[in-house]
Write a structure and sequence with these properties.
The complex is a heterodimer of chains A (about 325) and B (about 350).
Chain A lengths: L8 H37 L6 H21 L4 H28 L8 H22 L4 E2 L8 E4 L2 E4 H23 L1 H11 L1 H6 L4 H27 L1 E2 L4 H15 L4 H25 L9 H15 L14
Antiparallel strand pairs in A: 1-4, 2-3
Helix pairs in contact in A: 1-5, 1-8, 1-9, 1-10, 2-3, 2-4, 2-8, 2-9, 3-8, 5-6, 5-8, 6-8, 9-10, 9-11, 10-11
Chain B lengths: L5 H23 L1 H26 L8 H14 E2 L4 E2 L2 H23 L4 H21 L20 E2 L2 E2 L4 E3 L2 E3 L1 H24 L2 H11 L1 H6 L4 H27 L9 H14 L4 H30 L6 H19 L8 H12 L1
Antiparallel strand pairs in B: 1-2, 3-4, 5-6
Helix pairs in contact in B: 1-2, 1-6, 2-6, 2-9, 2-10, 2-11, 3-4, 3-5, 3-9, 4-9, 7-9, 10-11, 10-12, 11-12
Classes of the chains: A mainly alpha (about 325), B mainly alpha (about 350).
């Protein structure tokens, strides 16, 4: 690392640090929303829903498809985005229900490998359908929200980033309330604990599982809109790597644990942003920010080696 | 009739295998012999993955990474890129060893955990390898980035390069036919190894772990090491197939090793019949040849039906395989040609 003698090194570094922290928090709150979908389904079914990343992608693209005509019809920007979000949530919710009904429910008693394999099939099918509907091109997300950057401690934060952070926080608090304080939430927790006993207590497990999928998919839709708005583009291929990272976030926090997924998401976002910001310096320019996507993976391996139950998870026994 | 004289059966099968490239080449053109060569490579890959997924029941979604490692090792050690020209017969075993080593490195942290983690870690690993292959061209050019490595030395047997036709009693046998014979030989060797493994102590331990890990442990099987062995062995088969691919194609680039390829090999194992060697071979053959048939048939068929090409063959292939994975898992979970034990196991799981 080369330090310039006359520019105080730590000032410059401080700016970058705060900037990367802000970017990381924004990205992390999106990961957290997606991670919640993984962790809820895992908590109830013990299944990794590989297709979840594709649901995020479908959410982003349907929202775009709704936002563009709305904006063209003269609807003010924020309202158009809200409309797009609602359409995307509705579509993804239905998609989640369909996927659960078609691909996972028939296999609930099958060996563990079976639903994992259908999940991959679902993921492939969704991706190709999206490609048929939207083509192979990148779709740009229109600038509908004021993007004037604000200065904070020498770093810049845009209104969009603030909005993402606020919305994500509100949604996550709402979800925690839903799961911990309502009748439905209690039924969900009971099903996760023990489906048979829950059924004996009058919980309709099938309904709860379907609802969990629907809820997770709706969250995924919002996350999809956020990703598209944050990066300014959407693409039929965007779901896979996003899903992988969100899953990593869920594992990092302790899979099956809602609070863990949120924490894991935010942490992973920050790690990634800091990593991408500093990797060039750390390795003397040998590795560049092309390797941003690699961090999530090393985090995943690291967690699995050091603390497989995640930061907030209980120790889970090896279930064969 | 054949059962009465097994020797005659083997002889007949051998003759059929030997004549196949000539029949295909004469009937459908040499492009199809090439397809056949690739089908054999896929069969080797599918058999390797079958050890991991089929025997030991561990879902590996980044299997193609080991293929990539084998292929790039060959490319780096036998091409003008670094000016090295090692003989193929030195590189292929090395490729197996290096791929196996990577398998152990990857498997060791994850295999003591639940199987689902392995799936996602291998998925990530496959992508990481591809990202590295894509980006390790600066500042030190190791993999030549997205352009890939070209002008790789062709495979050779006994000093004869398989890129050149062989003059044999006045008959000129093209290089792809020769590659076919080499690949058939190696595929048969791998089939032999896996068949023997299946009935060995290790093979039984794998199946025991797949059926019930806790019971297997209680019977004194060191489950972690045995799982690691399955993983490493599958990986090393992938490494060998990768080396052959590089030497056959004489060109490698990162795009040959996408996630889709991993999923494709998985499809072969699952659709053919997990854990059943004849099923896996059938799966490999079907899934390697069908896309080619699609490529030739689907375009004109759509043109005739709808007046234009709605789905290009590549997306049609992925769509069809995705649907096939779902349908096979739901309606025929043991695959098209399942092993008798596997079928019983799935039937029991459905009924309970």
């Amino acid at each position: 690392m080369k330090r310039h003698p006359r520019v105080p090194f730590h000032y410059a570094a401080m700016d970058t640090l705060i900037q990367q922290l802000i970017n990381g928090l924004t990205l992390g709150s999106i990961y957290a929303l997606v991670a919640l979908g993984y962790t809820m389904v895992y908590g109830i079914l013990g299944l990794i829903n590989f297709a979840h990343g594709e649901v995020v992608m479908i959410g982003a693209l349907t929202a775009l498809a709704a936002i563009k005509p709305l904006a063209a019809a003269g609807v003010p920007g924020p309202l158009a985005v809200l409309g797009g979000c609602l359409v995307a949530m509705l579509v993804c919710l239905c998609l989640g229900l369909i996927v659960e009904r078609v691909a996972y429910r028939p296999l609930r008693r099958a060996p563990r490998l079976a639903p994992l394999i259908t999940a991959i099939g679902v993921s492939m099918v969704l991706q190709q359908l999206a490609m048929l509907a939207w083509g192979r091109n990148y779709h740009s997300f229109p600038q509908l929200l004021p993007a004037t950057p604000r200065e904070i401690l020498g770093a810049q934060i845009s209104d969009l980033q603030i909005l993402i952070l606020v919305v994500a926080t509100v949604i996550m608090s709402g979800l925690l309330l839903l799961v911990n304080r309502t009748r439905l939430g209690r039924a969900m927790r009971a099903t996760a604990e023990n489906p048979q006993i829950a059924a004996l207590m009058g919980v309709d497990a099938d309904r709860i599982i379907a609802l969990t999928f629907a809820l997770g998919s709706a969250l995924a839709a919002i996350a999809g809109v956020m990703v598209a708005a944050n990066y300014g583009i959407a693409h039929y291929n965007m779901g896979f790597i996003l899903g992988l990272k969100a899953f990593t976030a869920a594992v990092l926090g302790g899979i099956g644990n809602l609070g863990g997924a949120m924490l894991g998401g935010v942490l992973l976002g920050v790690i990634e942003a800091l990593g991408a910001g500093y990797i060039g310096d750390l390795t003397g320019g040998f590795l560049g920010s092309d390797y941003q996507d690699v961090f999530a993976f090393f985090v995943l391996i690291g967690v699995l080696v050091l603390r497989p139950s995640g930061l907030m998870g209980e120790k889970l026994a090896e279930r064969a | 009739m054949l059962k009465a004289k097994p020797f005659a059966g083997v002889l007949l099968a051998g003759l059929a295998l030997a004549a196949l490239p000539f029949v295909v080449g004469a009937g459908m053109g040499n492009a199809w012999v090439r397809v056949l060569d690739f089908a054999l490579l896929y069969i080797m890959l599918a058999l390797g993955l079958n050890i991991v997924v089929g025997f030991a029941g561990l879902l590996d979604l980044g299997y193609i990474a080991f293929y990539a490692i084998g292929a790039y090792l060959y490319a780096l050690l036998a091409s003008p890129h670094f000016g090295l020209h090692w003989p193929a017969w030195a590189i292929l075993p090395l490729g197996a060893a290096v791929a196996g080593l990577f398998g152990i490195l990857l498997g060791a942290p994850t295999l003591r955990l639940r199987g689902d983690y392995l799936a996602i870690v291998t998925l990530g690993f496959g992508e990481i390898i591809r990202i590295f292959l894509n980006n390790l061209n600066s500042p030190v050019n190791i993999t030549n980035g997205p352009q890939g490595i070209a002008r790789i030395d062709a495979l050779n047997v006994g000093g004869h390069s398989l890129a050149q036709p062989l003059q044999f009693f006045g008959l000129s046998i093209p290089g792809i036919y020769l590659s076919y014979y080499l690949f058939v030989f190696l595929a048969l060797a791998i089939i032999f190894i896996t068949l023997r493994l299946e009935d060995s102590r290790i093979g039984r331990a794998w199946v025991a772990i797949r059926e019930d890990e806790i019971a297997a442990k209680a019977c004194g099987i060191n489950t972690r090491n045995i799982k690691l062995l399955a993983f490493a062995m599958g990986a090393s088969f992938g490494g060998v197939a990768g080396g052959l691919f590089a030497g056959f194609q004489e060109f490698v680039s990162p795009e040959s090793f996408s996630l889709m390829e991993s999923v494709m090999v998985l499809c072969m194992v699952v659709i053919g019949g997990m854990g059943h060697i004849p099923g896996v071979i059938l799966g490999g053959l079907l899934l390697a040849v069908l896309p080619e048939a699609l490529r030739h048939g689907a375009g004109p068929a759509q043109q005739a039906l709808f007046g234009r090409v709605l789905l290009d063959p590549e997306s049609l292939r992925i769509l069809a395989f995705g649907l096939a994975l779902i349908l096979v898992m739901i309606y025929r979970p043991a695959g098209l040609w399942p092993s008798p034990t596997r079928r019983r196991e799935f039937a029991k799981a459905d009924g309970s």
